[in-house]
User: Fold these one by one.
Assistant:
Number 1:
Amino acid sequence: MTPLDRIKAEVETHPIVLFMKGTPQFPMCGFSSRAIEVLKADGATGIHTVNVLADPEVRANLPRFSNWPTFPQLFIHGELIGGCDITLELHESGELARMIAEVQKA
């Protein structure tokens, strides 16, 4: 399975996927830390995370897959939502909580 196939499988298999630096318990950058914090604050449970620092192939290929250059990257229902800034904006507007609630009731 190619790295792009693996990324596609992760995104299609899990309703909420955060490709991040580190883990939710030990984020390795401030952006990843903030993204996981707002996801949890907005009620996300069962967030599937992928530590891009532990998987160099995913780290190298994810920007090509998503056409998004930075980490973290949040996907909901297979769709790229964006990075930390967009995730924070959606959180502040209440839109992120709505998206999460919709995913989790499905």
Number 2:
Amino acid sequence: MTRVLFVCHSNAVCSPIAEALLRHLAADRYDAASVGVVPAPAIDANALAALHRLHVDTQGLHNKGLDSIADQYFDIVISLCEQAEDAARAIPADRFMAWHFDDAHCCSQPEANKVVHEIYERIKLLVLVQDRQEKSLW
């Protein structure tokens, strides 16, 4: 199972969205987690609503900080905003990626819908590429 960690500044919008979407698309092959450098008190309600509209399970999503993953190793660490990139690069992993989004603590419903769709497209591409790399063509 490939372990993927999504890191953003607040763990309120982008990283929990990414965690939920990867679990939704490929929980049988990926162990997804998310953290924030400075976690917000709660996950943004509009982000949760945007996920619910797509029938994505958000049960178990909650704000977490870097301390929650201390001494853990990940196959892939993905930074989702510039403010979190340095902290994300310091987390032990085989691969690092930077997908920069505007990690606002609170966003409008149209903004949340847009971010969910943008992250969904990147998650689909990540899964496709990873799956292709793991399967031999011969």
